[in-house]
Design brief:
Helix content is about 35%, strand content about 25%. The protein is α/β, with parallel strands linked by helices. Strands 1, 2, 3, 4, 5, 6 and 7 form a 7-stranded mixed β-sheet that branches. Helix 3 packs across helix 4.
């Protein structure tokens, strides 16, 4: 029996958990991501909880903790998903350059008897970029499977002026907040 199940196949989330030495098994949720929330922080919490509870139900009796997470990039209260094509990526990056935006990650911790949720917000400031710089970044292919059309841990790092908040939240998993929440719930044995 796995102690911890990550309700995701995200390579970035897996890498972050491995980095801090947490042992886990991956079992992604295949539940449709439809939610009733409208604000970015409510959306990520609702989706994280939906994913974690879906996996907890499917893996009943096979875990001590299921971790669900969902991340969105928001600018001017508009959620920027993964770009469908280069044109959409250009529009997103043009919107983000030269200003700040927010990254929200919702987390759900599902134990056998209880569910705890929270979210983290990080403010990300991007340097001004020329159209050529945006097109050159898009040509790397990196933006195409990333919310907001960028990877802070990748080639886009050279355009990040600063962040206010948790770097790992922007990557997709606020691992320190997860660890601290597990500890505050008296479940250190899972770590």
């Amino acid at each position: 029996m796995a102690k911890i199940i990550l309700a995701s196949q995200s390579p970035r989330r897996k890498e972050i958990l491995h980095q801090v030495g947490i042992e886990f098994e991956c079992f992604p949720s295949d539940k449709d991501e439809i939610c009733s929330s409208v604000t970015p922080y409510d959306i990520v919490v609702e989706l994280a909880e939906m994913k974690a509870k879906d996996v907890a139900k499917k893996k009943a009796g096979e875990y001590e903790l299921v971790i669900g997470a969902d991340t969105v990039v928001a600018c001017d209260d508009k959620i920027l998903g993964k770009p469908a094509d280069s044109e959409t990526a250009f529009e997103m990056l043009s919107m983000l350059q030269g200003r700040s935006h927010q990254v929200y990650t919702g987390v759900a911790l599902v134990f056998k008897d209880k569910t705890y949720t929270f979210y983290k917000k990080t403010e990300v400031y991007v340097y001004k970029m020329t159209d050529d710089e945006i097109y050159n970044y898009i040509s790397t292919g990196e933006p195409m499977d990333k919310a907001g059309a960028y990877a802070i841990q990748g080639k886009f790092a050279s355009y990040i002026e600063k962040i206010e908040g948790d770097y790992y939240n922007v990557v997709g998993l606020p691992v320190s907040a997860i660890v601290q929440n597990i500890k505050s719930l008296g479940r250190e044995e899972l770590l």
